[in-house]
Amino acid sequence: MNRLAPSVRPCVSTERLPTKLFYGSYNNCSSPNLIVVVASIVVLTLGSNGQVFATSAIRGIRFLQILRMLHVDRQGGTWRLLGSVVFIHRQELITTLYIGFLGLIFSSYFVYLAEKDAVEDEEEGKNTGTFSSYADALWWGVITVTTIGYGDTVPRTWMGKIVASCFSVFAISFFALPAGILGSGFALKVQQKQRQKHFNRQIPAAAMLIQCLWRCYAADKSFNSTATWQVYLSDPNPPAANNNAAGGSGSNYSMPLSKVSDSNNYVQLC
């Protein structure tokens, strides 16, 4: 049923028909799960007997089922976090990798120069120095800076050992810097997200406090600005002089509203 879901989903969608036929189909066709469905259908159709359409080779497409692991992070938050950290620290990463690769190239070349003229073994008639080409020296350099050290290619002369020792101390330190840069970048990014969440939780409380203080200030009798709530506050004993001055036809400014009738309570609470 999970394999049939991408093909059935556009038909049972609650969207309108044009959107259902185009956008729904496009979204499902772009899903990695569709690759798994197609690969499984091809393998099941061709079977395991015969060599029609290279069935044995197509059977290897079943490895694409590993793409189901991508559903663990459907929103892509992990990749966005990694991309943001790399983008922020791109200058430091480029600098360290550039210097590290320069050290790798030159050190491998110096080791090759020191080891290519090694003394030949008299019994076997072979070169005891295994650096027969610059490619061997470069292979040795890559294995050394990655701290793997297979041991299949090693310097045998004293000059080669001295160069290899200096290279190991210098190049490995530069190739190890990106790990520290990315680690500190991840820690700072996570700390920044936590700080942002804490700040977002404080915004409603701060807004309520500001509104309460403004209501108290605007409802004060000594407040003379036009932006005031005094016109909405009902006066229980309006002076008769106001009605007489208005000729009996004017209306007082008592406008009781349900939303502002509790302004006195705000004043008392604050």
What does this entry look like structurally?
59% of the residues lie in helices and 0% in strands. It is mostly helical. Helix 5 crosses helix 8 (158-218). Mean pLDDT is 71; it is low at 241-270.
Which descriptors apply to this entry?
disordered C terminus, transmembrane helix, IKs producing slow voltage-gated potassium channel subunit alpha KvLQT1, membrane, 59% helix, 270 residues, mainly alpha, Ion_trans_dom, flat
Q: Please state the average pLDDT score.
A: 71
How large is the count of helical segments? 10
List how many beta strands DSSP finds: 0
Structural class: mainly alpha
Assess the beta-strand content as a share of residues. Answer: under 5%
Q: List low-confidence stretches.
A: 241-270
Overall 3D form: flat
The H/E string reads HHHHHHHHHH
Helix content: 55-70%
Distance between the termini: 61 Å
- Biggest β-sheet, characterized? none
Radius of gyration: 38 Å
Pfam families: Ion_trans
Subcellular location: Membrane
GO molecular function: voltage-gated potassium channel activity
Membrane topology: Multi-pass membrane protein
